[in-house]
Amino acid sequence: MTQTPDIPTEDHGDQGHPPHLAHHFETPKQQFESGKFGMWLFLATEILMFGGLFCAYSVYRGNHPETFIYGHVFLETKWGAINTIILLASSLTMAWGVRASQLGQQKLLLWMLALTFIGGLGFMGIKTIEYRSKISHNLFVGSMNAFYFTGDQPKNIEARDHAVGYGKDHHGVHPVHEDDETHTGNVSGISGISGREKVDHPVDAAMVEQNVSAHGDATASIEAAPTDLEGLADESKILTASNGPAGIEPQFFTVPVVSGDSRVRSAAEANTTHKSLEYEDLTPLQQERVHIFFQIYFLMTGLHGIHVLVGMVLILYLFIKSLSGAFGPAYFTPVDLIGLYWHLVDLIWIFLFPLLYLIH
Amino acid sequence: MSVITKRTPTDIFGKPIEVDRKNYLTEQKGLWSWLTTLDHKRICLLYMISVLSAFALGGLFAMLLRTELISAGPTLPGVIGQGQGNDKVWNQYNQLFTLHGAVMVFMFIIPGVPAILGNFALPLMLGAKDVAFPRMNLMSWYCWVAGAFFFVLVLLTKGLDTGWTFYAPYSTETTTAATLAVAGVFILGFSSILTGINFIASIHMLRAKGMGWTQLPLFLWGLYATGVIQVLATPVLAITLLLLIAERTLGVGIFDPDKGGDPVLFQHFFWFYSHPAVYIMILPGMGVISEVIATFSRKHIFGYGFIAASSVAIAILGFLVWGHHMFTSGQSPMANMIFSFITFSVAIPSAIKVFNWLATMYKGSIRLATPMLYALGFIWMFTIGGLTGVFLAALSVDIHLHDTYFVVAHFHYVMVGSMVFAFLAGMYYWWPKMFGKMYHERMGQIAAVVVFLGFNLTFFIQFIAGSQGMPRRYADYPPEFAVYHFWSTIGSYILGIGMLMILYNWVHSLLKGETAPANPWGSNSLEWHTVSPPPHENFRSDPPVTDPYDLSRWRYDPDVGGYILDEDKEPEERQALYV
User: Fold this and answer.
1) 8 A C-beta contact, residue B377 and residue B498
2) Which chain B residues are within 8 Å of A245, Cβ to Cβ?
3) Which chain B residue is nearest to residue A295, measuring alpha carbons?
4) For each of chain B's 579 residues, which pLDDT tens digit applies?
5) Are B517 and B555 in contact (CB under 8 A)?
6) What ipTM goes with this model?
7) Which of residues 75 through 114 in chain A touch B, CB cutoff 8 A?
8) Torsion, CA B245, CA B246, CA B252, CA B253, rounded to 10
9) Mutate which of A23, A30, A48, A152 to test chain B, going by most B C-beta atoms within 10 A?
10) Is B175 exposed, middle or buried (0-12, 13-18, 19+ CB in 10 A)?
11) CA B96, B97, B99 angle in degrees (round to 5)?
12) What residues of A are in contact with residue B540 (Cβ under 8 Å)?
C-alpha cells in the first residue's frame, strides 16, 4: 500500500554521518533494511516457538477430542472476541503510529502509541478477568485444577463438582438426559472395550461417506456412531485415526456415548438442548483428562500474555523516546520494528482465539 | 636456545608496518572495555575464553567417566551423586555422562565454531566493519554467560543425571537440579538464535561492493546454512524446555501418560530441534575445511557450487529426519520407514562435499601444515562417522544398535573427530590473523598426530563394543567388554594429553610466538587482505572483491614468512589497506 519514504542514502551531517547511523553501516538505508530483516528473522523464531505449542494442542486435541469439546464450555467466547477486536484495533493504531513516525507527525505518533498501549492494557485486563474467574472456580494449572486427578480420584472432589456445576451454569443450559443412569462409561471411544485390539486404522474415506449419507448431514466434527453395541465392538465401523501415542486411539469422527439404555448415540443426539458435552457424558477416563484442556489453555494464553506484556513495555519505551522527538523521517526504525513485533503478537492471538474459543 | 629476532610485522605487500600500530587488541585497554565491546573480534575472544573453558570442563567429565569405566565394578570413589555406597558411584556416573554431554553440546559445540571463528572471520570475509547487529552480538555472549551460570548452579547444587537428552518421564521426576539445567539451556538457546540472526542478516546486507552470493567464501555459506537452522530449530527447543519446566514445577501432565500426556511427545519435540542441532554443529566445521583444504592444496576449491548447495540441502533435509533417534520408541512402521529413507538422503550432500574436497586436493601442491593435518584427519573421521550414521539409518540395523556404544562411537566420530578437528583446524588457520603471532609448527603437527591417534583409539574400539552389545550410559559391564573399555580409556588419556599439548602450543605462541605476516597461508579471502592482527575497523575502505579461491595473485616471500601481492599490480588493494 504505502511506500516507505525515501530514507536518505547519502551520508550527511556534522561528522560525515547522521547521528543515528552506526559505524559499520554505509548508509541509513542499509541500516534500516538490515534491522528490518533481522526483525523478520526474529519473528520467524517466535512463530516456530509458538508452533511447538500449537503442535502440542493438535496432538492433545486429536487424542482427546471429547475432553476438548467439554472443556470449551468454560471459556467465554464473549471475552475472547472482545480481546480479538482490541488486539486488531491496537494493530491498526500501531501501524498508523509507524506511518506517523515515517512522516514526522509527532502528536499523531504519540496518540497512536498511547492507544496501542491502552489496547494492550485492555487485553491484559480482560485476560485478568478471565483468569480470575477461572482461578476462583479452581480451574488453574497443574494440581490447582479441579479436574486434576491423583490416582483414580480427583484431587479435590468438592472442587471438581463445583467446577462441573460452574460449567453447566456457565453454559446457561441444563442437561436433559433420557434417564438417570448416564454413567456406564466403559464402552466408549478411548479405551476399555474389552477384546478390542489396537491396530492401525487409517481413516477410511468410504466409511466417512457412508456415515455422512447415513445421517444426512455433513458436519464433519462429530459423526454418529453405529447405533448398536455390537456395532461398536466391530472395529471396522468405528472411524479412527491410527493409534496415537501411548496406545490411545484418537477418534476424530465418533463420540459414542452410552446412556443407561445402552443405546449408543452421538454426542449431538445426547445433548439435544445444548451444543456441547456434559461432564457426565464423558467416560471416567475422559473425565480424568479434562485438566489437560486447561493446561494447554493456560500455557498458550499465558505465553502469549507474556509476549503482550513485553510488547507493552517496548511501546512504552517508544512513547517515552517519542516525547523528546527521537523519531522522524530520518530515523523511525525502532517504531517500525516494534510495530512488526506487535503485529506478530496480534497474529498469534488470531490463531489462538478460534482454536481455543471457537471450535467445538 | 638461541635468541630469535622476531620478524617485523608486514602488510600484504610485504612492506613493514610500525610495531606499535594500534590493532583491535590494543585499541582500548581495561577489562571494562572488553566487557562492553561491540567489536566482533573482541567478542570472538570473549567467546574463545569462555567456550574453551567449558570444553575443558566437559573434557574433565569425560576423563572421569572413562576412568570409571576402565575396569568393571566401581572405580572412582562416590563423591557426587545420590545414594550410598555403590549406588552413589553409579549415580555419580549418571551425573558424569549427563554433565559431560550437556556441557559439551550446549556450551561448547553449538556455539563453538560460529561464535568463535565465525564472529572473527565473517565480517572480515565480507569486507565489512562488523556484523549487522554488534550490540546483539555482545548480548549473545552474555546469554551464553548467563546460561553457563545456571550450569554452575547445577554443579553446585544437586547436579543432573537425566542424560543430556532430558527424556521424560525421568526428567520430570528426578530430584536433581533438572529445572535449573533446563533453564540454563533455554538461555543458551537464545545465544544461538541471536548469533544466527546476526550472521544471516550480515551475509545478506553487509557484503562488500561487487561480492555476489557466488563470491562468498564457502565458510560463509556454511555459516549461513547454520544460521538458518539456528533461527528455525532452536525456538522449538525453547518451547520444549518450557513445557518440561511446566511439567516439573506445575505438574501439568503433558508428558505423563497417567494424566493423559505422552512421553514420546517429548522425544518428538526434543529431537525436532536436536537433530538439526547436529547440523548446526557440523556445517560451520565443513566450511572451515573447505577453506583449509583449498589453501593448503594451493588450488581453487573444486565444485564451489555443489559445496554451497549441499550446505543448504543439509540444512533443509536436516529438519526432516528427527525420527531416526526414535526408531525404537513405538513410532509406526510407516514413520520409521520415512525417517529412515530421508536419513539416507541427507548423507548424500555430505558425501558430495567430501568428494569435492578430495578433488580439490588432487594434483594440488599439498602442504602438511597443522591446519591441513586436522583437515585431513577430518576427512578420515567424517567418512567413518558419516558412514556409520548411514548404518544406523537402516532400520533393522538400528534396532540392534540403538542405545549401544556403536551410537556413542558414531556421534563422537562426527562431533569430536570431525567437528572438534575442524574447529582446531580453523583455530590454527586463523590464529596468526587473530593474534599476529605464529604458533610453533612442529609442536602443532605433533599434537595433531597425538590427538588423532588418541581419538581413534578411544572411539574406534567403541564401534566394536557396541556391535557386541555394550549398552550406552551404563556404569558397569560384564567382563567380556573389559578389553574394549580398557583400551578406550587409555585412548582417552592420550587424547587428553594431545589437547594439553595444543593448549601449551597456543599459550606459548601468545607469549613467544613469531610475528605473523598479513597472509601466512596465501589464501585470497578478504580477511587475509588486512594486517595481522586487524585494526579495529578491519579495512580502511571496501577492499576489492575477487574470487576468494584465486590463489594465483599471491607469491611466497621467505623473508616475510608468508605470501604477498605485487604492489604495482594492485592499486585498489593499496588504497583499501590500513597502514
Assistant:
1) no
2) 262, 264-265, 330
3) B252
4) 455 567 888 988 888 888 778 899 999 999 999 999 999 999 999 999 999 999 999 999 999 999 999 999 999 998 888 888 889 999 999 999 999 999 999 999 999 999 999 999 999 999 999 999 999 999 999 999 999 999 999 999 999 999 999 999 999 999 999 999 999 999 999 999 999 999 999 999 999 989 999 999 999 999 999 999 999 999 999 999 999 999 999 988 889 888 888 999 999 999 999 999 999 999 999 999 999 999 999 999 999 999 999 999 999 999 999 999 999 999 999 999 999 999 999 999 999 999 999 999 999 999 999 999 999 999 999 999 999 999 999 999 999 999 999 999 999 999 999 999 999 999 999 999 999 999 999 999 999 999 999 999 999 999 999 999 999 999 999 999 999 999 999 999 999 999 999 999 999 999 999 999 999 999 999 999 998 899 998 987 678 899 999 999 899 999 999 999 988 877 777 766 654
5) no
6) 0.91
7) none
8) -30
9) A48
10) exposed
11) 65
12) none
- Give the C-alpha separation, A108 to B221, whole Å: 45
Contact with chain A for residue B326, Cβ under 8 A? no
Q: Rounded CA gap, B330 and B541, in Å?
A: 60
Claim: this prediction has a pTM higher than 0.95: no
- Cis peptide leading into residue A329 (ω within 30°): no
Find, in chain B, the residue whose alpha carbon is nearest to that of A58. Answer: B265
- For cell 564472529, name the residue: B119
Element (H, E) at B62: helix B40-68
CB of B405 closer than 8 Å to CB of B470: yes
CB burial readout A324-335, b (16+ within 10 A) else e: eeebeebbbbbb
Nearest-by-CA chain B residue for A242: B332
CB < 8 Å to B534, chain A: none
**A55: chain B residues, CB-CB within 8 Å:** 269
DSSP string, B92-103: HHHHHHHHHHHI
Name which of B436, B444, B404, B418 is nearest B279 in CA terms.
Answer: B418
Give the CB-side neighbour count of residue B286, counting CA atoms within 13 A: 34
How long, in residues, is chain B?
579
* Beta carbons of B197 and A42 less than 8 Å apart: yes
